[in-house]
Design a protein that fits this description.
13 helices, alpha/beta, Aspartate Aminotransferase, domain 2, 2 domains, single chain, seven-stranded mixed sheet, Aspartate Aminotransferase, domain 1
Length: 391
């Protein structure tokens, strides 16, 4: 992988039309959804034009693109292609875990008491239907507490489901330590990766993750309603199916003989994919993933960290604002949150000036990404100074 090159990021920035709009827009909200680049827009428009004019049958293109995407995502997370499948969102993979893992009645599932609802509601329903027990691990200062996690483990605890990066304060969980604890207690380790995917390097094999799942509409800058999941080789054959699709079987691309009912399941994560694909989403994913391959996720992390550092420097010296994210290096991410006496008024003021971000759990959430640059952060800082000067 090449070294960090600011010029490469400046080049990529030009692919995002909002960065050169006549109307000032500083987009710092990739933790909600990522903006489309021109390659994504082009891929979607070209397919729409093709479907409007129907000059050829493009149905088989779908399979070529999906094959490439499994390989691309596998490479980005340190997995094998056969361990990666394509889903509709993060919850798709969470459901595979919650309803498919070999758990017995009375087994316990641990989640954080400050967890994103996708994990809580999925495993809550699975617990209800499967006779399992869902237990919450108490957080400390709104961050996952490893000591309290270890104390919560009993002889019946079989699974930890956790977000890689917490959505509301950017706290990056120590997946290595959590995995080691899970393995020591013979527990499954399930990770919701959406708030770290595309900004934090990861190797799911080295970390010993059993199931990893991520939507691609946020930091991966793809259309909404798409994502991927990873099923470790040693887990896949032990998972139950809560649903089944005819494309979960290996047809070997022979679709002229569809009265065959004895095809084997795919010997890969594909067996858990759900029917035909949303081709527009696949094409958008395919266009956006090239950006991450070109820049490299380690370089993206470095780029984003430099931008966040600039903001931290200002917030530390202005007593009107208080940082609510952890600043410990191993727990930092591309999300930074801070608060003040009137965040609703501040939020309205920032939006009025073209700074797009959101409020989360009593804080302003800034999520800086690869298309942002220092001028974006300085513009935000200027508006923060202006707001504070009036208080």
């Amino acid at each position: 992988m090449s070294e960090y090159n600011p010029r490469a990021f400046a080049k990529i920035r030009k692919l995002f039309p909002h960065t050169c709009s006549e109307k000032k827009v500083v987009y710092l909200n990739s933790a909600s959804f990522g903006p489309f680049s021109t390659p994504v827009k082009k891929a979607l428009e070209e397919n729409i034009d093709l479907r409007v004019m129907v000059t050829r049958d493009d149905s088989h293109d779908t399979f070529n693109v999906s094959e490439k995407l499994r390989s691309d995502y596998a490479s980005l997370i340190g997995a094998k292609k056969k361990e990666v499948g394509l889903g509709l969102n993060t919850s798709f993979g969470l459901n595979i875990a919650a309803f498919g893992l070999p758990l017995k009645r009375g087994d316990e599932i641990l989640v954080s008491d400050r967890e994103f609802p996708a994990i809580v509601y999925t495993f809550k329903q699975a617990a209800k239907e499967r006779g399992l027990t869902l237990k919450f691990v108490e957080s400390s200062n709104s961050c996952f507490d490893i000591e309290k996690f270890e104390k919560a483990i009993t002889s019946r605890t079989r699974l930890l489901a956790i977000s890689w990066v917490q959505f509301f304060n950017g706290y990056r969980n120590d997946l290595k330590t959590l995995s080691e604890i899970c393995k020591r207690h013979n527990m499954f380790f399930v990770v919701d990766g959406i708030q770290g995917m595309g900004t934090e390097p990861i190797n799911v094999h080295r970390l010993g993750i059993d199931i990893f799942t991520s939507g691609c509409q946020k930091w991966m800058l793809s259309p909404q309603g798409c994502g991927f999941f990873y099923l470790a080789d040693h887990i896949r054959d032990h998972l139950s199916h809560s649903w089944m699709s005819w494309l979960g079987c290996d047809w070997k691309m022979q679709f002229s003989d569809l009265f065959r009912y004895d095809n084997p399941l795919h010997d890969s994560a594909r067996r858990f994919e759900m029917g035909y694909y949303v081709i527009l989403n696949l094409l958008g994913m395919n266009a956006s993933v090239e950006i991450f391959k070109e820049l490299g996720i380690r370089n993206i992390k470095k780029h984003n960290t430099m931008l966040i550092n600039e903001l931290i420097g200002y917030l530390k010296q202005n007593s009107y604002y208080s940082i609510t994210s952890s600043l410990t290096a191993k727990h930092r991410s591309s999300i930074l949150t801070f608060t003040c006496n009137d965040i609703e008024e501040l939020h309205r003021s920032l939006l009025k000036h073209g700074v797009v971000l959101v409020q989360r759990e009593g804080s302003i959430r800034v999520s800086a990404h690869l298309f942002n640059n220092r001028s974006d952060i300085l513009y935000l800082i200027d508006k923060l100074k202006l707001f504070a000067s009036k208080k």
